[in-house]
Amino acid sequence: MENQKTIEVLNDLLHISNDRLEGFEKVEGKIWEMNHDLQDDYEHMTSQTKVFKNELINLITERGGKPDDSASVAGTIHRAWIDIKNSVLLSSLESATLENVLFGENAAIQAYQEALDTGELDEASKEVVSEQLKKIKDSSHEFKGKLELRK
After folding, report:
1. DSSP, residue by residue, 67-109
2. Is 69 exposed, middle or buried (0-12, 13-18, 19+ CB in 10 A)?
3. What is the rounded CA–CA span in Å between residue 96 and residue 90?
4. Residue 60 has pLDDT above 90, yes or no
5. How many CA atoms lie within 13 A of 87 on its CB side?
6. What is the pLDDT of residues 119-151, one digit of tens each?
7. How many whole angstroms separate alpha carbon 98 and alpha carbon 52?
8. Helices and strands of the chain, counted as H and E runs
9. What whole-number distance in Å separates Cα of residue 116 and Cα of residue 129?
10. Which of 43, 67, 100, 116 has the fewest C-beta atoms lying within 10 Å of its C-beta?
11. For 33-52, how does the pLDDT look when each residue is reduced to its tens digit (9 = 90+)?
12. CA 14/CA 57 separation, integer angstroms
């Protein structure tokens, strides 16, 4: 039973990784043409998330679980809301898009922290999730810092 709870928590984080990747894909190339200084950080967050996703899939499989490799319902709804909001706010699309990247990163940080706080992760999973959380925080902080310098 404990193993099943660990698998559920890891699958929730897998959903978060997929949410992040789908959100990253929504950022248009035009945004990066105007923000070269942020593009490297953004690409780093994207590639990092792909690694995290694979690590989570491996942890789930090693524990006898089946990876639920989909996005979350909440993430899908949030992306739809952003699409609607951005279609109305065309004048500030660039700023809103970059702020949405940070919003998504903050949501991921919160989800990872909540996963660690559940107490449902075994030691090996906790170690991987803690390291992923640290890396998300670090990259988000760096992205946010550069974004704030532009204001």
Report:
1. ---S--HHHHHHHHHHHHHHHH-GGGHHHHHHHHHHHHHHHHH
2. middle
3. 9
4. yes
5. 6
6. 999 999 999 999 999 999 998 998 888 777 766
7. 22
8. 6, 0
9. 7
10. 43
11. 777 777 888 888 899 999 99
12. 7
**How far is it, in rounded angstroms, from Cα 55 to Cα 76?**
23
Say which amino acid occupies 52.
F
pTM score: 0.83
Q: Rounded CA gap, 18 and 49, in Å?
A: 8
As a whole number of angstroms, the distance between CA 15 and CA 12 comes to 5
Higher pLDDT, 112 or 88: 112
Q: How far is CA 133 from the centre of its chain?
A: 10
- The amino acid that residue 32 corresponds to is W
Tokens standing for 143? 């992205």
pLDDT at 13: 93
Which residues does 116 contact at the CB level (< 8 Å), separation at least 6? Answer: 126, 129, 130, 133
Structure-block tokens of residue 102: 């940070």
- The first and second tokens of residue 20, run together, are 């992040």
Across all residues in the chain, what is the average pLDDT?
82
Over residues 87-101, the pLDDT tens digits come to 544 445 567 777 778
